[in-house]
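Handout, page 2. Input:
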Amino acid sequence: MPDSFYDYFAEYQHLIFRDWEWSIDWQASVLIPFLEDGSAGRKLRILDCACGIGTQALGLAARGHEVVGTDLSGGAVARAQREAALRGLPIRFHVADMRDLSTIADSGFDAVIAADNPLPHLDEAGLREAARSIAAKLRQGGVFVTTIRDYDALVVERPSVIGPAFLDDDGRRRIVHQVWDWIDDRWYTFHLYITREMNGYWDSIHRAGTYRALLREELSQILREAGFSEVRWLTAEESGFYQPVMVARYFGS
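Output:
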């Protein structure tokens, strides 16, 4: 897992969004129906096991749910803690690897989430560890929700550039784009560039990490082996989210 990438990137991650504050609220509004399904509107206990700077955790906590956030990056967790404090949200954050969540005392969660493509950082062995670790944190019948790029299509398309997105910061331009260097048919190096118009000059931020194109059936099978069932995938058109959403329930192996 590329914790050094996110340690550095934590102070800039909000810049990949057109409007981060809006996205915090919007993402929660889209994801919450999958988490609340069958809950009869009661407050849920939710573990965000790849919380980053808090994009999903903040919005879910603002809706009254009890949220615990974990991430491998200490820098991201520190930023998320600051953001929660600024908003007066009682989220507990911990530095933890999703492949081994046993360091977190809490268990019996109604839902675990891992949003915005975190699982493809892992190889097959790491995915199996993460699936078992996540399952151990859920109550019987609890739900796991993750969002992942549409790699079933991307391994065929093999794009080299994503974007650019031209954004605006009170009249100053911000450009976000990605460059993908494919290593083989599944692994690629991901380059993220954020270029900002400042006072009389341009500033550019570049970080790189590695991903593995994770196919839907591969993840579905790994989750079934870990005790999940009712595994379903929704396209972006079906869910309203910007990535495919996968929902699975845990009933034990």
